[in-house]
Design brief:
Layout: E1 2-3, H1 7-25, H2 40-43, H3 46-77, E2 80-92, E3 94-100, H4 106-122, E4 127-133, E5 137-144, H5 147-169, H6 180-185, E6 195-196, H7 199-207, E7 221-226, E8 232-233, H8 239-248, E9 251-257, H9 264-272, E10 277-280, H10 286-296, E11 300-311, H11 314-334
Parallel strand pairs: 3-4, 3-7, 7-9, 9-10
Antiparallel strand pairs: 1-2, 2-11, 4-5, 6-8
Helix pairs in contact: 1-3, 3-11, 4-5, 7-8, 8-9
Length: 336
């Protein structure tokens, strides 16, 4: 049994000492009623002495019960609890979904979103995260095992891609009820005057969103990467360098690309150099292949130490009720 707020006990001790001293210093004095002379004869009788002893005993017991009840209140305020350390070992992987959301990728991303949702549903025990990039990278979801939240985010991305395609097909002449909020969802934080589709920057940024990347080298990590490699601008980190950083940190890249890929040979060799795989979105078995290949990667163990606090107020609360009941019973008897 531990106290979660032990400092309250010290406050309670001071309060109890003050109350006890204050009570002891109170002197009984005549206030009202009729004075009686020559009471010596009565005070010497056995009955009087017996009643006086009972009064003192019951009065002191009532006072002690009241102080103990107050002490129980302070103990309850200090929150008595049972604290347990639970060590759980999970064997899983860390997976980031990293998506190029430039306009040229809308059609593929719309198709892939549904497939990625299937990947999330099929795998079990993994932690997922989502990043999107254009000229800049945005972390939508840090690594989590809240699969429902991941699926909700992918649903929202899917609707954003649909809105972007609608905008292009209507040559920006959209109906009045067009949802601009969904349209701009994928662009928030990803645009810049420095260009678009900065592939290497997007991959490198995603890489460094893995927590404890250099401290915990035993974790199994991989990135599901979607892009057409259509670079428009000068990235801070070229794709080849970003792939080498992934290889250096033992992060495998599983890339999904459309039918037409810019510099496909360089792109494919960079991805394969990380120890990952390269897929064309035109393949009918892409999801099965991707899940099988992910399952073949080594799982790592993750030790999670969780502190569980069980509040235990029952015994103290019952004691407080008992002391309060004793106080009221005795105070009525001696008319305190």
């Amino acid at each position: 049994m531990e106290l979660m707020n032990p400092w309250i006990i010290y406050v309670g001790i001071v309060v109890l000492i003050v109350l006890a001293v204050f009570r002891l210093r109170i002197k009984s004095s005549y206030k009202e009623g009729k004075k009686v002379a020559n009471t010596n004869l009565v005070e010497e009788t056995e009955l009087y002495k017996k009643l006086k002893r009972q009064y003192k005993i019951f009065g002191n017991l009532a006072l002690a019960s009241l102080l103990l009840a107050i002490a129980c209140v302070f103990i309850l305020l200090s929150r008595p609890a049972k604290v347990e350390q639970v060590n759980t070992e999970l064997r899983n992987r860390d997976i980031f979904l990293c998506m190029d959301i430039s306009g040229s990728m809308d059609g593929l991303n719309l198709e892939i979103c549904d497939k990625l949702k299937q990947v999330v549903k099929e795998l079990d025990g993994e932690r997922f995260g989502v990043t999107i990039f254009n000229a800049k990278s945005v972390l939508l979801i840090p690594l989590t095992n809240d699969y429902e939240y991941v699926l909700e985010t992918l649903d929202k991305l899917e609707k954003s891609f649909e809105a972007s395609i609608q905008m292009e097909e209507t040559d920006y002449d959209v109906p009045d009820d067009f949802d601009y909020e969904l349209y701009y969802y994928k662009y928030e934080g990803t645009l810049s005057d420095e260009g678009s589709s900065l592939i290497g920057d997007g991959l490198a940024s995603c890489l460094y969103n893995f927590p404890d990347l250099t401290e915990n080298t035993d974790r199994s990590r991989l990135i599901i990467f979607t892009t057409d490699n259509q670079l428009n601008g000068t990235p801070y980190v070229p794709l080849e360098e970003a792939a080498r950083l992934c290889k250096k940190n033992d992060v495998k890249v599983f890339a999904i690309a459309p039918e037409n890929v810019t510099d496909e040979e360089v792109f494919e060799s960079s991805v394969l150099g990380t120890g990952g795989k390269y897929y064309k979105a035109t393949s009918t078995d892409i999801i099965d292949e991707l899940i099988d290949d992910i399952e073949k990667t080594e799982k790592s163990s993750l030790n999670i130490v969780e502190t569980i606090v069980y509040d235990k107020p029952e015994i103290v609360f019952v004691c407080m009720l008992i002391f309060v009941a004793i106080y009221f019973a005795l105070s009525r008897k001696v008319k305190l």
